[in-house]
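Hi there,

I know you've been waiting on this one. I reran it after we fixed the sequence typo, so this is the corrected version. Both the input and the resulting structure follow.
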Amino acid sequence: MKGINVYFIGTAGSGKTHLLAAFSEWLDFHKIDHVTVNLDPGSEDMPYSPDIDIREYFTLNDIMLRYGVGPNGAQILGADLLGAEIDEIKDEIEYYDVPYVLIDTPGQMELFTLRRSGEIVVNVLGKDSVAVFLFDPVISKTPDGFVSVTFLMASSVFRLKIPHIPVLSKCDLLGTREIERIESWSDPDVLYSELGSGVEREVFHVVREAGFLQKPVPVSAKKGYGMEDVYDSIQEIFYGGEDMDRILY
């Protein structure tokens, strides 16, 4: 099998880059070969040094100067330009010939999950891929917030068509009871009983029927907590004998 591509995806501020850095350190500690890839042209002050970096091809400042657009326009153009450079990035990845490829996606997740370039990247790099999808703890600690993030994950699965592993990021910011409560919402009956009436229950039915109500893996990049659980989840997907077409989370 070629290297497994592990995409880190989540809403802005959910901690994708720091989690990738922590997981990379965990792999280093266990002497597991891997390569890190940054696909965010707007990244600054990163907690790791990418082995492969889209910023070597272009940055947001480059785009703003070349096309005369502002920061928001540059992010959109950057997402589209990513698809044009992915063949070169693939060649770089293949040069390393490692079993795991950790991929840092753009901060605004919709730039990767909703635009065509995200699909192009996944298709070019290959279907031996999995997404680590971050549940922001601030958003996810309320029932309606949990359903909302689950719905975002469902849209990512729909667009990228690769397995997704839900993780509760920055769990060090939550108390033990808060984490246990969030984990309990993987039980549809428990979650439904805590939701208010209205549109949130309609969205709940959608994600429940699609099978997306799963217990997120608690992780903390700051404390290095949960890295083994993420690794084990990846192993289960690719070596656990499951039907890959049916695993979406």
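Quick highlight: The longest strand covers residues 4-10.

Best,
R. S.
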